[in-house]
């Protein structure tokens, strides 16, 4: 009996210009979501990206798909910054500091509120990006703790909550006008994370599970 040989299917790869258009749309959407919120008209996003409305809908069939892609891309870049910090061979706390400031620049705190009850928070892409980011943040903190530079009574949840709160503009202020304060206040927070600790924190270290239950 002759064994059938499987037919190799040709995989069609997106053209380079199509990929660039998609990247431009995601970048423009991120900027406008941060500046104006999730209800910004899609045609305004298309205009900023320099593409037609049809190109936006060809890549993202609805607003939810675009919001999800923006949030995932921000988490992916945050995770990449964490990987860069882990690859550094120098001062572990300095690497943690650089990671935190880079993560704040991604403005993920301004994007997270868009994931409302109507948004599929358990979409596989979103869950995978979230888990990857959390694992890397944990490793960056563990390395600083192992070096005796990061106080031991703080958890990943403590860091993520602080970065989110400190990089989110106060009520009544514009995102962009408050940006000049973000890194100053983040550095004050980071100085408080250094070991040895100069005070006893109330409560217990906040874990990722605590955040999920909140």
UniProtKB/TrEMBL annotation:
Record-linked Gene3D superfamilies: Tetracycline Repressor, domain 2
TM region positions: none
HTH tetR-type domain segment(s): 19-78
Keywords: DNA-binding, Transcription, Transcription regulation
Keyword Ribosomal protein: no
GO molecular function: DNA-binding transcription factor activity; transcription cis-regulatory region binding
Keyword DNA-binding: yes
DNA-binding region: 41-60
Pfam families: TetR_C_43, TetR_N
Top-level taxon of the source organism: Bacteria
PANTHER family tied to this protein: HTH-TYPE TRANSCRIPTIONAL REGULATOR BETI (PTHR30055:SF234), HTH-TYPE TRANSCRIPTIONAL REGULATOR RUTR (PTHR30055)
Protein name: TetR/AcrR family transcriptional regulator
The organism of origin for this protein: Streptomyces cupreus
